[in-house]
């Protein structure tokens, strides 16, 4: 039976590409989203991938949602923690809700989504967890102290969880994307993109969502059992760590 994969934020942007790539490779995928019903319905009708609506910043919602996926599809063997938001501003102007909103969605969600499935993975002796961080969690970014803290936290979480579960057939890894051609990045004014952003990227272009999905496919493969606690940077050479 094909393995069951849950992708948070799996209906739009990078997550949609991850969901599609996993489904194409034969995994049984559940794509989780927060509230954009229109995008989720379009995604579902185009791909046939089942969608589930819950808030990854809410532990009880995650526990209930993951239990539903398990009863619909079977035990979760692959978890891709991709859902994320930005609420950018300089710290001296940041409101508490901007700080806590980002930390809850981008970092606390890793606990909320992983805790309900990790014991089952340990019992079954197999699991693949991929956490989508960001280049800005590695290097910091002005106006993103909340986001960078959450994304750096993803990396510390990953390394610890990887150590705790290494003997149980479970791998835990990070992908740290650079600038990817999602709607958010495409909305950046053309001259800012061409004069400021692209010159920082040695490859000379934005990344494509499929290039992140390819990294996920590589890390979740049964054959990738010796790769754990790693951070795979997919950033066109923008930073080399
Ligand atoms: P998008 O904004 O295009 O999509 C975000 C997805 O996450 C949506 O499906 C959204 O659901 C879901 N989501 C957001 N909040 C929640 C929540 N509380 N509960 C459940 N689902 C939620 O994001 P991107 O594709 O741009 O980014 C995906 C990941 O990649 C993020 O973690 C981001 O930080 C990271 N990243 C992105 C980069 C880029 O260049 N785009 C660069 C580096 C990292 P809904 O549709 O309902 O809103």
TrEMBL record:
GO terms for molecular function: acetoacetyl-CoA reductase activity. SUPFAM superfamilies: NAD(P)-binding Rossmann-fold domains. Residues 3-183 form the Ketoreductase domain. The keyword Oxidoreductase applies. One of its GO terms (cellular component) is cytoplasm. CDD domains: BKR_SDR_c. Keywords: Oxidoreductase. It holds the Pfam family adh_short_C2. SMART domains: PKS_KR. InterPro entries: Acetoacetyl-CoA_reductase, KR_dom, NAD(P)-bd_dom_sf, Sc_DH/Rdtase_CS, SDR, SDR_fam. The keyword Nucleotidyltransferase does not apply. One of its GO terms (biological process) is monocarboxylic acid metabolic process. It comes from the Bacteria. PANTHER family: 3-OXOACYL-(ACYL-CARRIER-PROTEIN) REDUCTASE, 3-OXOACYL-[ACYL-CARRIER-PROTEIN] REDUCTASE FABG. NCBIfam families: AcAcCoA_reduct, PRK12824.1, PRK12826.1-2. Belongs to the short-chain dehydrogenases/reductases (SDR) family. This is 3-oxoacyl-[acyl-carrier-protein] reductase. It comes from Methylovirgula ligni.
């Amino acid at each position: 039976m094909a393995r069951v994969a849950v992708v948070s934020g799996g209906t739009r942007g990078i997550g949609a590409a991850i969901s599609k790539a996993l489904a194409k490779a034969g995994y049984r995928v559940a794509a989780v989203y927060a509230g954009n019903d229109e995008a989720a319905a379009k995604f579902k009708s185009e791909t046939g991938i089942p969608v589930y609506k819950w808030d990854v910043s809410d532990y009880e919602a995650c526990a209930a949602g993951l239990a539903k996926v398990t009863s619909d599809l079977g035990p979760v063997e692959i978890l891709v923690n991709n859902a994320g938001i930005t609420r950018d501003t300089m710290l001296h102007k940041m409101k508490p809700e901007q700080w806590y909103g980002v930390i809850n969605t981008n970092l606390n969600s890793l606990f909320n989504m992983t805790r309900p499935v990790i014991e089952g993975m340990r019992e079954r002796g197999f699991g693949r967890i991929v956490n989508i961080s960001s280049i800005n969690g590695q290097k910091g970014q002005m106006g993103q102290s909340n986001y960078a803290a959450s994304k750096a936290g993803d990396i510390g979480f990953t390394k610890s969880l990887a150590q705790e579960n290494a003997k149980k057939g479970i791998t835990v890894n990070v992908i740290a994307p650079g600038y990817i051609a999602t709607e958010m990045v495409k909305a950046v004014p053309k001259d800012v993109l061409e004069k400021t952003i692209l010159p920082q990227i040695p490859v000379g272009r934005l990344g494509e969502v499929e290039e992140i999905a390819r990294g996920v496919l590589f890390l979740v493969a049964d054959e990738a059992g010796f790769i754990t606690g790693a951070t795979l940077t997919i950033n066109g050479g923008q930073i080399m760590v």
